[in-house]
Amino acid sequence: MQTPDETNATPATGIAARDWATAAADPQYRAAVVDLLGALAYGELAAFERLAEDAKLAPTLADKAELAKMASAEFGHFERLRDRLAEVGEEPTAAMEPFAAALDGFHRQTAPSDWLEGLVKAYVGDSIASDFYREVAARLDSDTRSLVLAVLDDTGHASFAVEKVRAAIEAEPRVGGRLALWARRLMGEALSQAQRVVAERDALSTMLVGGVADGFDLAEVGRMFTRITEAHTKRMSALGLAS
Amino acid sequence: MQTPDETNATPATGIAARDWATAAADPQYRAAVVDLLGALAYGELAAFERLAEDAKLAPTLADKAELAKMASAEFGHFERLRDRLAEVGEEPTAAMEPFAAALDGFHRQTAPSDWLEGLVKAYVGDSIASDFYREVAARLDSDTRSLVLAVLDDTGHASFAVEKVRAAIEAEPRVGGRLALWARRLMGEALSQAQRVVAERDALSTMLVGGVADGFDLAEVGRMFTRITEAHTKRMSALGLAS
């Protein structure tokens, strides 16, 4: 039998060992979590909007229903995050607004021009979001972590996209080159907007670099972005989109 | 104590007294229900799309979330109706496609040009749909009726719109005239598309006029449209949109 400390790379010490009531006594930690929930909530709402929009590109009603299902799931996530903000006494809109420009910017820069681009975006977005939720969960108090993991548990609705993209590339290999470029552009734009957020939001960035309680440093946030990028690259290769 | 026959205007006889397995032995009734489920499913999917689109017109994030919530609920209804089609051995896409032109036509002709038009459309659409679900439920076998009533139970998410539209008219009474015209146009377009469907879909129309088992006649379908129109007019008056 392993002890919990042996099974987890990050043992539950510092923030991770505290509940919200204890952790939020530190105003900087509290501000960081409000930022995080605001960013995630707006991200889910924006994802809902874009997926609903991109569903219009679907060639069949069944395809449209798949993307609409993802959109609907994102809306459910948005509601949980927004309700949590209200529960801790924050005005959800005020918490979300600082992140609107970056997320809207990302979606404006990456509007898919056809169904396959829409599918790749749905899959890439879903995967990056999952990776980020998983990374950030370890830096949170137990109550916020439970919420983040619950939302994470309900992601992964994009797996239908993998099969369809793979089939399209097999049918016409030339498509692969175009979609590989597209996937790189998606990741590049995501990183560029993430860096904008990190630069602008002190409390959130400080939490991400571990300035509040745990032992992360600035290099660690860079490593997190690197891990997410590497996971993305692996997924794209598996999909036949080696770049 | 009242007996069920005394509490309901329409006693459970004919189709209403049968379950799906018994009722669907009649191929014309079966075709009518497949038509109905296909029309309702496509209607819910189209409503999801349009509400998600119209949510972009929202002046605040909270308003956007309200309309997005409706969209998400419509998607849930779509899933139940689609799953029921699959359950009775029908291909959902094939069942929905005959109704795409009429429903897409309705939405194309009634794209709101601003947030208030979007709110009125959400409320009018939700209310007309509820009325239609309630009307048609009485003409269905017990299993199909349960599904239709379950979906109906989950509608009514548009009540938030009432308060907002009323406040806008109070703030600027001139708005009322414009929205009253808009509401009439919505109802006119809905009736015109409904008549197109009635003209094109024999099995469904026959069921609606009672040709399968119960005692409805052609005048009855006209009366149903009249009842729905009257209910709409009353709601619009209550909203300050007397036309």
From TrEMBL, chains A, B:
Pinpoint the Ferritin-like domain residues: 27-211
| Protein name as annotated | Ferritin-like domain-containing protein
Pfam families given in the database record: MiaE_2
CDD domains in the cross-refs: Ferritin_like
- Please give the superkingdom of this protein's source: Bacteria
